[in-house]
Amino acid sequence: MNIWVAGARPRTLPAAIVPVAVGTACAVGEVPGGLIWWRAVAAMVVALALQVATNYANDYSDGIRGTDADDKRVGPVRLVGQGLAKPSSVKKAALLSFAVAGLVGTALAVAVSPILFVVGAAAIAAGWFYTGGPKPYGYAGLGEAFVFVFFGVVATAGSTYVQTGSLTLLGLGASIPVGLLATSMLVVNNLRDIPGDTLVGKRTLAVRLGDQRTRFLYVAMIVGAFVMVPLVAGLSGRLFASAALLSIFVARKPVLSVLMGAKGPDLIGVLGDTGKAQLAFGLLFTIGLSIII
User: Fold this and answer.
1) What is the rounded distance in angstroms from the CA atom of residue 123 to the CA atom of residue 138?
2) Per-residue pLDDT tens over the stretch 38-95
3) Is 218 left (phi over 0), alpha (psi -120 to 50) or beta?
4) What is the pLDDT of residues 206-237, one digit of tens each?
5) Which of 69, 127, 178, 208 counts the most CB atoms within 10 A of its CB?
6) What are phi and psi of 71, to 5 degrees?
7) What HEC string does 89-102 produce?
8) SS (H, E, C) the chain
9) Which of 170, 284, 158, 176 is nearest to 234 (CA)?
C-alpha cells in the first residue's frame, strides 16, 4: 500500500462517511423538489477531507513530539515517527486536506448559510489541535468528545442542515448513535495504544481510565448506539430505520474480542471490524431513514 494512503488511515474513514449518509437520509421528504445532491456530495467531501487532514495532522504532531518514536508501538503506519516521510511533507498533506475541506465547505456556506463558516473553522481548528499546538486536547483525554461532537452531532445534523436549512430533531437524534459508533473507533484505537501512550506521557482517556474500564466504555458505546435506534425510529415515525439493528451481527465480533481481552496487534483487527460494523449500521440506518410511510 502507498505510504500516503496508509498514512491517511483508511480504516477510520467510515467515521466520515456514515454521518453524512445518515444525515442526508434524515432530510428525505423534507426538501421541496427532493434532495439537493451536489450538497450531499460536497458534505461528504468535506467530512472525508477533515478526517484525512486530522489523521495527517495527528501523524505530524505526534511525530515531531517523539510520541510515535517508540519502535514497540503497534497500529497504523506513522509517516513521521517511522521516518517514512519528512515532517514538512506530512504537514503539507494535512494543510492541503484542510484546504480542500475549507474550499468545498465555502461553497456550502455560500449556498446555505454563513453559519457554516463558523462550524467549518471550528472543525478545522479541532482537527489540528487534537494533537497539535502547545496544549493538545487529545493528550488531556478529550479526543472522544471531539469525535462525538464533530463526527457525530455536527456531521450528521449538519448534513441534514445543508439540505433543509434548519436543524431537525431527527437529524440531532440520529447523530447520537452515529457519534457513539464513531467514538468507539477512537476508544479501541486508544485502548491498543495504552502501553505506548503511558510511556510517553500521552494522557488519553484510555490511559486515564485504564485497560479494563476502557473496554467497558467501548462496549457501552456500541450498546448505546443500538439502544438509540428504536428510539429514533419510533419517535420519528420512520420505523424502517430499525433495520440498523441487524448490524448487531457485524458488531458482535469486535465486541467479543474486546471483552475477551484482545491486546496489541489483535486490536488492529478489532478497529477494522468496528469500522465494518459502523459501515453496516450506517448503510442500514440510511436506507431505513430514507423510507417514509
Assistant:
1) 14
2) 999 999 999 999 999 999 998 998 888 877 665 555 667 788 888 888 999 999 999 9
3) alpha
4) 999 999 999 999 999 999 999 999 999 998 89
5) 178
6) -75, -5
7) HHHHHHHHHHHHHH
8) CCHHHHHCCHHHCHHHHHHHHHHHHHCCCCCCCCCCHHHHHHHHHHHHHHHHHHHHHHHHHHHHHCCCCCCCCCCCCCCCCCCCCCHHHHHHHHHHHHHHHHHHHHHHHHHCCCHHHHHHHHHHHHHHHCCCCCCCHHHHCCHHHHHHHHHHHHHHHHHHHHHHCCCCHHHHHHHHHHHHHHHHHHHHHHHHCHHHHHHHCCCCHHHHHCHHHHHHHHHHHHHHHHHHHHHHHHHHCCHHHHHHHHHHHHHHHHHHHHHCCCCCCHHHHHHHHHHHHHHHHHHHHHHHHHCCC
9) 170
Distances (CA, A) of 109 to 121, 163, 213: 11, 12, 41
Amino acid at 186: L
C-alpha span between 71 and 208 (Å, rounded): 23
Q: Distance (Å, rounded) from C-alpha 131 to C-alpha 145?
A: 14
Cell of 46: 468535506
Q: Report d(CA 131, CA 147) in Å as an integer.
A: 13
Using an 8 Å Cβ cutoff, are 264 and 74 in contact?
Answer: yes
Give the torsion sign (CA, 207, 209, 210, 213): negative
List the domain boundaries for the chain. 3-290
Is 238's pLDDT higher than 90? yes
Question: 212: how many CB neighbours lie within 10 A of its CB?
Answer: 9
Residues 181, 244 contacting (CB under 8 angstroms): no
